[in-house]
Specification:
Largest sheet: none
Helix content: over 70%
Number of helices: 2
């Protein structure tokens, strides 16, 4: 279960990071 959630979060984090590279805090918020 966690593996799927981690993969999903990674996908979202990658997409958000690529579009909003200036907001690294956003990816941290998603991680937590």
């Amino acid at each position: 279960m966690r593996a799927e959630m981690e993969a999903l979060i990674r996908s979202a984090d990658f997409l958000l990071g690529a579009e909003n590279a200036r907001l690294p805090r956003l990816s941290l918020r998603l991680s937590t």
